[in-house]
Amino acid sequence: MSQPTAISQGPTDRNGRIARFLRDYYIYFVFVAVIAVLSVANLDQFTLFERGNFLNKYNIINILRVSAPLITLAGAFTLLMVSGYIDLSVGSAMSLSAVVYALLAINGVPFLPAFVATVAVGVVLGTINGFLVVRLKITPVIATLITLSLYKGIALLLVQDGVSAIKSGGGLKMPAWFNDYGREGVLLSLPMAFWVAILVTLVLIIVQKRTLIGKYAAATGGNPTAAKLSGIKTGKIVWVLYGIVGVTAALAGIARSSFMSLGDPLSGDGMELTVILVVLLGGTAFSGGEGRVSKSFVAALIIMSLTVGMLTLVPAYYQTLVIGSALLLAAASNHIVSKKGKSS
Amino acid sequence: MTISAQIPPRTEFTRRRLGDEAFITLLVVLAAVALFLTASLLVPNFFQLQNMINLVTNNWAVISLGVGVTFLLVSGNFDLSVGGVVALSGVLSVWFAQSAGGANALSTGLGMPYFLAIACALLGAMAIGGLNALFVVRFGVPSIIVTLGTMMVARGIAQVITHGSQRNTNLPEEFGVLGNLYMFGTSVKLPVVLMILLILIAVFIEKKTVFGRKTYWIGANAVAATLSGIDRAKHITYLYLFSSAIAGVVGILLASEFKSGFSNRGMLMEFDALVIALLGGVAIAGGFGSVVGMFFGAIILAVVTSAATGLVLSPDWQFTLKAIAVFLAIVVQTWALARRNR
């Protein structure tokens, strides 16, 4: 019996290794494949991208510029989901931050104070989520659904009736510097917002790999009871993670608001779905315990390349369908690969 | 073996559990009545029969969706796809019914007879329910992610068919009948009557049939339910098909009422359906809640939003009010149950 076992063990072992290799690195192959398809596809006949091919300097700069909010959010959201929690309010928190930032700027507050104040607002928003989930023990989905509605409502109330967004007009004028953060190239013709996004991602990669918060987040998501019994203050960890997500939502809001040069109370609508899609695509388990900030970063680049690149291939009204299908496929393949499938 | 041996005796435990549910439902009803009376004091012309009728009839779509969502929540699953399905089935019914020769792409349909068209649209809606069930039951993906995905898929298909806007030309004469049919010479339309029938049937299924009780057992303890021989996969599949069929009918009726298939119709209805179920005391973890509670949850939301409009608050207040209402409902219900069972 030993011989057949040895023979059959070979391929299974190799299969196992291939499966593991695929699971660990598939996101990079997907990235290359998406870029390859978008570069090869002929774009010349479409008027949207008169500059030519996908992989030209201006297009890359454009994609990276508009990716800043998503990249900023993806890392923190990954850590939160690794710990087994979720924040559906990120889109609304982003809208609210965008409105607050624009309001401060238009009323004459200089860049740095406005920036810091908005980030502080983000901390507060994240802390409220943490309070509802950790202290009041409301299910994360419901708690953040409540704040989704709340933050969006406040953002709408901050913008006066009859106006759709905070912008120049009615005696107030957006300051000239407002656009710079999200648009003006500072390094490699990429704007500040993008470099902040990269910085946030790098910091969170280090947090995940080298600090206790990262280890504790994975422990909390992998087995909350065991984590609690081994002395980890899971509640505190979750609270901190919600706070970090709040900060990144504020940064994303500032980036979006500065890029569009207005404070739109609906600018973050649907962002929570895009972030979830990105994080799941990056291989993070919905039930918590595993996931990598670095992979979510690549997944964010994939989704942004797809959404921008797709505009040159199909009409804009295909976007919801494509993103929805991608969300389903990412979620399903995640759960089939990790075989951690549990219903509900 | 006598029959009485098969029926478990009414122990202290079963009586108490059912009691909790009735208690919460009563709490919700009282809250709805109290809110209505408060609003009547504050808002002029609020305390009128027509206004009470309007509170129900204006919300027939969300209440109908709430029935399917409530059953799924009780079984421990989300259904956030219903809003997308409303848009999909409405757009499909229009596309199928539009006559084949039109001036441009948006006025050219498949030219089916009306009743075939709505039957096919309903099938299309139920396909989304089947997709939900496939991913949730077969692949074991968390239902919130699946149904958010299928919501986007359903709305995405609707957007592709309508090119992101709407189809409303070249429709047969009978298309606008169903959604605008006044019943018994009153101002009540057919969809409202269907909603009331649906609620009656749902309450019967929930309280009096094995199917209804199985839903509770699955939600309360899925493992125990499976071990005691309940086919969980089949049951949840039925529930998803049931919910998407309701959403499909709602979509068809709305399309008929407005004589158009609009790809953004039903936007955020999935959240409203979830919100009224939560306001009505349905537990997010499953195994607890009732259709009657959901109905009065909808009344609470309707009273709050219409009173806010009556007090000349800006419509922007609705999101904030919804958030506060759900928050209070959850905190009060948790507190009341904890106090009662102390």
Task: Walk me through this protein's architecture.
The complex is a heterodimer of chains A (344) and B (342). Chain A is mostly helical. Chain A has a single domain (56-334), classed as ABC transporter involved in vitamin B12 uptake, BtuC, CATH 1.10.3470. In chain A, 70% of the residues lie in helices and 1% in strands. Chain A has 13 helices and 2 strands. Chain A has helices at 2-40, 57-82, 90-106, 111-135, 140-158, 180-183, 192-210, 212-222, 224-229, 234-260, 271-281, 293-310, 319-338, and strands spanning 185-187, 190-191. In chain A, a hairpin with a 2-residue loop joins strand 1 and strand 2 (190-191). Chain B has 342 residues and is mainly α. Chain B has a single domain (13-340), classed as ABC transporter involved in vitamin B12 uptake, BtuC (Orthogonal Bundle). Chain B has 14 helices and 2 strands; from the N terminus they run H-H-H-H-H-H-H-E-H-H-H-H-E-H-H-H. Chain B has helices spanning 3-6, 12-42, 49-57, 60-74, 82-97, 114-138, 143-162, 190-208, 210-220, 222-227, 232-258, 269-279, 291-310, 317-340; strands spanning 166-167, 261-262. Residues 1-6 of chain B have low confidence and may be disordered. Chains A and B meet through helix 5, helix 11 and helix 13 of A and helix 6, helix 7, helix 12 and helix 14 of B. Chain A: InterPro entries: ABC_transp_permease. Chain A: It comes from Hoeflea poritis. Chain A: Keywords: Cell inner membrane, Cell membrane, Membrane, Transmembrane, Transmembrane helix, Transport. Chain A: This is ABC transporter permease. Chain A: The chain crosses the membrane at residues 25-43, 63-81, 88-106, 112-134, 141-166, 186-207, 237-259, 271-289, 296-314. Chain B: This is ABC transporter permease.
Number of domains of chain B: 1
Overall spatial form of chain A: globular
- In angstroms, what separates the terminal alpha carbons of chain A? 43 Å
Major sheet strand order of chain A: 1-2
Order of helices and strands of chain A: HHHHHHEEHHHHHHH
CATH architecture of chain B: Orthogonal Bundle
Organism (chain B): Hoeflea poritis
Subcellular location (chain B): Cell membrane
Membrane topology (chain B): Multi-pass membrane protein
Keywords (chain B): Cell membrane, Membrane, Transmembrane, Transmembrane helix
